[in-house]
Write a structure and sequence with these properties.
- The complex is a heterodimer.
- In chain A, 0% of the residues lie in helices and 53% in strands.
- By secondary structure, chain A is mostly beta strands.
- In chain A, strands 2, 4, 5, 6, 9, 10 and 11 form a seven-stranded mixed β-sheet that branches. In chain A, strands 1-3-8-7 form a four-stranded antiparallel β-sheet, with no helix packed on it.
- Chain B is mostly beta strands.
- Chain B has strands spanning 9-13, 18-23, 31-38, 45-50, 55-56, 61-64, 70-75, 84-92, 106-111.
- In chain B, strands 1-9-8-3-4 form a five-stranded mixed β-sheet, with no helix packed on it.
- The radius of gyration of chain B is 13 Å and the shape is globular.
- Classes of the chains: A mainly beta, B mainly beta.
- Chains A and B meet through strand 4, strand 5, strand 9 and strand 10 of A and strand 4 of B.
Chain lengths: 114, 112
């Protein structure tokens, strides 16, 4: 058990819809990361937050947005969903915002777009 | 980010040591070598990391070549639970911050 909690575990929705994925980091971790894993793209970094502020952006589409709340949990919002957004979405957390601290991953949310 | 090269797959027998290689010939002086693994239906899991010296922890050992152009993750006694995809990742915290850039990894199969 990594201590990172992601909900829901599975999400099935239709094209054009909007969903919110939630992540609770490990106790004491200030940094949250979002990654997407699809069959054709592998594991890709989307975005990082540190103590409520955006720290780094990766291959995140404009239709996607994220935020980190004062209690440090984070939400990833995906809108105008397309079939290609079907993937596993992982959240990870680490103590700090930079450096070599290990990242601890949740078990992911599997998003299926019908 | 500097690139790593790993074999697509490797096989091992239970209770035998496993040596997972990683080549990183373009590694820079500020790149740390990290290893993560991903078990089926789970998120990636941190295994070990190092800069220049060999490292040991409860999960594995990391052997780093003197010129740092290659490294080897060593599982001392493989168990069935070690069957996973193993990712070798270079992290230059100065230029790329904290993000992890995953490659294809090595799929390790452990035979009973």
């Amino acid at each position: 058990d990594s201590g990172v909690t992601q909900t829901p575990k599975h999400l099935i929705t239709a094209t054009g819809q909007r969903v919110t994925l939630r992540c609770s980091p490990r106790s004491g971790d200030l940094s949250v990361y979002w990654y997407q894993q699809s069959l054709d793209q592998g594991l890709q970094f989307l975005i990082q937050y540190y103590n409520g502020e955006e720290r780094a952006k990766g291959n995140i589409l404009e239709r996607f947005s994220a935020q980190q709340f004062p209690d440090l949990h984070s939400e990833l919002n995906l809108s105008s969903l397309e079939l290609g957004d079907s993937a596993l979405y992982f959240c990870a957390s680490s103590v700090g915002g930079q450096g070599n601290q290990p990242q601890h991953f949740g078990d992911g949310t599997r998003l299926s777009i019908l | 980010d500097a690139k790593t090269t790993q074999p697509n797959s490797m096989e091992s027998n239970e209770e035998e040591p496993v040596h997972l290689p990683c080549n990183h010939s373009t590694i820079s002086g500020t790149d740390y070598i990290h290893w993560y693994r991903q078990l089926p239906s789970q998120g990636p899991e941190y295994v070990i990391h190092g800069l220049t010296s060999n490292v040991n922890n409860r999960m594995a050992s990391l052997a780093i070549a003197e010129d740092r152009k290659s490294s080897t993750l060593i599982l001392h006694r493989a168990t069935l639970r070690d069957a996973a995809v193993y990712y070798c990742i270079l992290r230059d915290v100065i230029t790329s911050g904290s993000r992890l850039t995953f490659g294809e990894g090595t799929q390790l199969t452990v035979n009973p």
